Amino acid sequence: MSFEPLASDFYGFESLLTEPEQEALGKLRAWLESDVKPIIGGYWERAEFPRQIVAPLAELGVLSFAWDETKPFENSSVFRGFVALELARVDASVATFVGVQNGLATGAISICGSQAQREEWIPKLASGEVIGAFGLTEPLSGSDSAQGLRTTAKREGDEWVLNGSKRWIGNATWSDITVIWAKDVEDGQVKGFIVPTSTPGYSATKIEGKISLRPVQNADITLTDVRIPHALKLEHANSFKDTAKVLKATRGEVAWESVGTAVGAYEAAVAYSKERIQFGKPIGSHQLVQDLLVKSLGNITASIAMVHRLSVLQDEGKLTDEHAALAKLYATTRMRETVAWARESMGGNGIVLDYDAARFFADAEALYSYEGTREMNTLIVGRAITGKGAFV
Q1: Residue 6 has pLDDT above 80, yes or no
Q2: What are phi and psi for residue 63, nearest 5 degrees?
C-alpha cells in the first residue's frame, strides 16, 4: 500500500518515517477513516465509548507499539507521536482512550513495575484483553498532586490497604485494573499499586454532564479498605519522582494529540470552505476565510516541528521535564486557537456535530487542561529558565 502524507503536514515531516512506520500509519489511517470517522459523532453525542474498536486497535498494534515486550517492529517515538496525531485527527476521545490504556496504565507498569509485573500485564493490556486506567487526580488534588494526595496506603503484612478517592479517571467505569497512586502512611511517599477493579471496596461512578471528550468514560473512584497483595505494588514506584517519570513520557504524547485535534478541525474547515456557497461562490475563495485557514496551518506546522523534535530528544534519551512541559503548553495553546478559527469559519454550522468542527472545538478544552495545565507547565519551564521555583 502506497503511503500518502497528509496535506496538513505542510512541511512533510511524515516523509521522515521509515517505510515500516509509514505502512503501519497508513493502515491505521485507512481503518480510522472507514470504521471510526463515520460513527464517532453519534457516540460523542450519546457519551458512549465504541468498545468494538478496541480489538481492531490491538490488531493494528496501536496498544503495543511502545513496549519491548509486545511491539511488532522497531519504531521511533516520532512514529508513535504520529500515531497519536492520527487518532486525534479523527477523534480526541479515541486518542485519549489509547493514551490512558497504552501510555498511562501500561506505561506505569513498564516504567515502574518489576520484570514479573511487566511480563504479566503488558501483553494483556496490549491485546486489549485487559483494560487499564490510571488513578492519580483526586477531588481535592489536581495540580498539587506531588504534595496533596489524600489517598492513603498502609502496609499490613503481605497486604496493602488503600483508602481514599480519585476523580476524572479515564476508562475507569469499565477498566479491569486501575493503577492507583497513594501516599504511604509510614513514610509519606507516593507509591503505585495495580488494583483489580473487582476488589472489594473499589467502586467507580461515571461522571455525567461533560461537554468535552464525551465518549471517554471518566469516573469518580472510591477506595474503602481495599486490600491488595504486596505483589501488586509497583516495585519501582516509591516516590512522586517515579510517578513523574510516567507523566513526562505521556505529556509529550498529549502534545501530539493536541496537534491531531487541531488538524482534524482544520481539515474539516478546509473541506467546508470548498463546499459552502455564499455570495455565489465557495467561501474558500474569500480572503477572510483563507486568512483563518492559513493561520491555522501555521499553528499546526509550528506545533508539528516542536513535537517532532521533542520525540527525537526522547529517542536520544535527552528528554527533560521542561522539554515535555513546553511542548504540551505550546501545542495545546495553538490547538485552542486553531479549533476556534475552524469553528468560526463555518459560522452557525460550526456548532453542530454534522461538520465535525464543534466536536474538536469542545474536545480541545479537555486536552488544554489534562496532563498538566498550561499554567503548571509554564512554571516547570520557568523554573528551568530562571533556576527559581514559583509554584506557590
Answers
A1: yes
A2: -90, 5
Rounded to the nearest 10 degrees, what angle do helices 240-275 and 287-315 cross at? 150
**Residue spans of alpha helices (H) in the chain:** 19-31, 40-46, 54-59, 77-90, 92-98, 106-112, 115-127, 145-148, 240-275, 287-315, 321-345, 357-369, 374-386
Q: Is the pLDDT of residue 34 over 60?
A: yes
Q: Which residues pair with 203 in a beta bridge?
A: 222
- Could you tell me which residues come within 8 angstroms of residue 287 by beta carbon, excluding any fewer than 6 positions away? none
Cell of 188: 509519606
More confident call, 2 vs 357: 357
Q: Give Cα 180 to chain centroid, integer Å.
A: 18
Q: What is the Cα–Cα distance from 176 to 276, expressed in whole angstroms?
A: 46
Give the span between the Cα atoms of 390 and 376, in whole angstroms.
Answer: 10
Residues 182, 114 share a domain: no
Domain that residue 215 falls in = 132-232
Q: For 103-142, write each residue's pLDDT tens digit.
A: 999 999 999 999 999 999 999 999 999 999 999 999 987 6
Contact between residue 29 and residue 94 where contact means Cβ atoms under 8 Å apart: no
Res 3: pLDDT:
85
Report the predicted TM-score, pTM, of the whole model to 2 decimal places. 0.94
- Number of domains the chain is built from: 3
Mean pLDDT, rounded, for 184-213: 97
Looking at residue 140, its pLDDT comes to 85
In CATH, what number is assigned to the domain containing residue 332?
Answer: 1.20.140.10
